[in-house]
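fyi for ur records
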Amino acid sequence: MGCTNCSSANGLPKGCKSNGSCGVDGCGKMPVFDWLSNMDLPKDQYTCNIVEVRFKNGRKEYFSNKNNLKLQMSDVVVVEGNPGFDVGVVSLRGELVRFQLRKKNIKEDSSEIRSIYRLANQRDIDSWHKNRDRENDLMMETRSMSKSLKLNMKISDVEMQADGSKGVFYYTAEDRVDFRQLIKEMAAKFRMRIEMRQIGLRQEAGRLGGIGSCGRELCCSTWLTDFRSVSTAAARYQQLSLNPQKLAGQCGKLKCCLNYELDSYMEAVKKFPDTSKRLKTKQGEAYFQKMDIFNGLMWYTMGKESPVWLTIHAKDASQIISMNEQGQIPEDLSGFVVEDKTVNESIEMSNVVGQDDLSRFDRKKPAKNRRNQGRKGGGQRKPNRS
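which gave:
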């Protein structure tokens, strides 16, 4: 979410202490390191004249530097708006912008690319901050207006343009919402151009930010740029319990991090036999219960409701299945069962300093300075004759 302590003093930043410049824009959201900045271009290739500019909550757009301004990373610039003008921060320039344009299928001569006017002066920055301070009040007023109109929608964020002529209102809704009357009332009250944009629950969590169950900032608000679909199959492959309270993130959807190690788990599961097949023995059939991918173990029970679980190596389970396919049925599974250390090991809790005992608050504290207790009032301490 950025460093909140990077207010400048005498031209030097306080937070990062990077000798007066933030060359990689490390204090911003979703920073990009320009690894081509120190490399010379071929003679036949011209420098890319398009600059990437970052706005509120990591929104990035591309603008043409037609005036050939000498721009650096983290420069505040005034860009062309629709309508009016807007203020943003330079997040990327040079040849890496060409790669970003190719990635997003944007041509350099596209009409979507507007121009950069100038470097922002103090008047532009003051107007920018003044309009950004209005965003929270506008959001709360719009929520009350939508509630009075009984619209099934939630205004999650507001982004004001630097000149105050336009405001973008982001909302989430389960169904289609007819907000024409709402826009009329908003335009009459706020005296500006209104634009409504519907976003998903994942995008809303990325804009609002927060702390995940891992203790770190949300991936969608720091570095994640694309939101891939996450299914419950990812949790099944990783042998996770299908508990929606643990698998769901702040957005209410399945956590994006379930896809991070999914390929490794899917590759490891290939070494295990088919869990739908039963192990046939002369004493009965063994049903699969669970597996341990890291240790290569599988648990079976003799019967569906048997309380006794038998631990078998994945290789032995594959061997028994191949024997069953060849018509060979072993006597029992006792020759393949291994000792389950996770069940047999007992963890003994020891109260080292009495922190787990609630009655410790009821105990009287020992008296301090016993030597001085007998000397109160000028009396002398009696000798111990015992």
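The chain has four domains: 8-120, 130-199, 206-268, 279-342. thats all i got for now
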